[in-house]
Give the backbone structure.
Amino acid sequence: MTMHAPSSTLQAYLERLLRRFADLDGGRVATYIPELAKADPRRFAIVLATVDGQLYEVGDARLPFTLQSISKPLVYGAALQDRGPERVARAIGVEPSGDAFNSISLEPGSGRPRNPMINAGAIAAAALLQGDDGEARLARLLDALSAYAGRPLEIDAAVFESERTTGHRNRAIGHMLRNYGIVSDDPEPALELYFKQCSVRVDCRDLALMAATLANGGVHPQTGVRAVAAEHIGPILSVMTTCGMYDFSGEWVYRVGLPAKSGVGGGIMAVLPGQLGIGVYSPALDERGNSVRGVAVCEALSRDLGLHFLQPPRPAVMALRARYTLAGVRSKRRRPPEQERRLEQQGDRAIVYELQGDLRFATLEPVLRDIAGAGAELRFAVLDFKRVGHADAAAVRMLEGLVNDFAAQGRHLVLTRVRRGGLLAGFGAELDPRSAPAVSFQPQLDLGLEWCERGLLDGAGAAAAQHPRELAEQGLCAGLAAEDIEHLRARLQLLRFEPGALIVRRGEPADGLYLLRRGEVSVIIELPQGGSRRLQTLSAGMSFGELTLVSGGARSADVRADTAVECWRLGTAEFAALHSERPSLLIGLLRQMLRGSSETVVRLSGELTALDA
């Protein structure tokens, strides 16, 4: 599976989170199972896995520990798959118990365990797994859990023996289930299978991928293997939401707002449906059996990244509308051939991302990951906000982190069609003051593209030369004989304009074509909804007005002097006279006009191709 490099911004955030909670005191490792008492309370890991298979891991992410109760929703899903919802519902309820995980919480009369997240419900679920004998049911169990992890999992023999030796309360629960007919045969095989499922060895990376598999509708995001049928995801996540954190579940939903399951081995697995999975490992537990650091980390993740699944919903739209480089799409500024060639060579060092919809962690993270995977040659990233409707606080913080990263790497972030404040409320609050030069706000995407072009040309030592272009250096005169150029010179009128002056006015009849000797001009059209748009900016050596001169009619756009301008004008009558006076000159001029039109068509076709890619 091909994936982009992880976002360094998110990776840095997780590293800060790890440091922030590493010294969090409180809690004790589980001691009622002797093997669990050997865990080092200093161990700590955080892993995020997205539904497209990207992993972000910090700390002791590869340190093995046992699933314990985190296995319960996964085995419940396997029971649903093997026996069907109706059969499972006769054996296990779905109501929160409000009691501890090992409480003997059975419904009066029926004897059903109240939900599959307490030990009684988990033992009943284990008893429902398919298989002709204990060995076959164990194989079914390991296959199910391994599909969630994306790799073969094994049982920790020492923990299993410790579980079995000390599991007297669970044996009592098992025999009560047998008394009510929930477990139809000798409960010992079901109890042994339950002890083994709790003793399956995983690491924090596995937890995050298991959660991401649930978030991805039951399909492992890296292997593509389906771990559980899609119709069972809703029931699994529902009981995780209402019962997964034991008698802390209500508080958890209020503060974190993610379906989750904890285990006394120190792990927490949390799911944001459709987006990502979270795994946290730290073996020191609170009085309810939940990891102290794990709860704190999940609270911070939910708050900082806006992950609470009950926050006011907004339409889910992929944030990336288009992605292209300056090699394919450039600004409206036309440049001399040597600069155009330089931008063709260097254009891949600037990437444009046209964004849309809402920006939050899940929608912005793939964009930042793409930027991180763009390679060491990347110098500019342009984020265009025209179609963005909302950016939450997590997205703003992620953008600040990207700017800080770019500053350290000598790169630049260009934000177009967005301002500080408003849509990016609070932007700058966590920005290192030394990083300020690494971000630029531009009111238009076109101006952002031009800003990047200028940076690439300056960096390559190919900035525009600010000297006049004499007649022989004009693009329209390329290939003309010396005598034709002199004939043309005698028929030209040299004009001068101050900055801001209109050289050509829309709607006026064509009075000739213009050749720029010095300065810059912009061709501008008025928009129906108001305002104006730049079609192109021309510099010395370029021409304008030729198409209307040939086709006749009125000017279709304004041409404004951006700087002090000197230009020659070849009047309409003088141009027409060349037909009889100097046919070779007329043919040469028409040939260069046709070449220019052809180059424009090729450029526009290339831009359309890049935008559709």
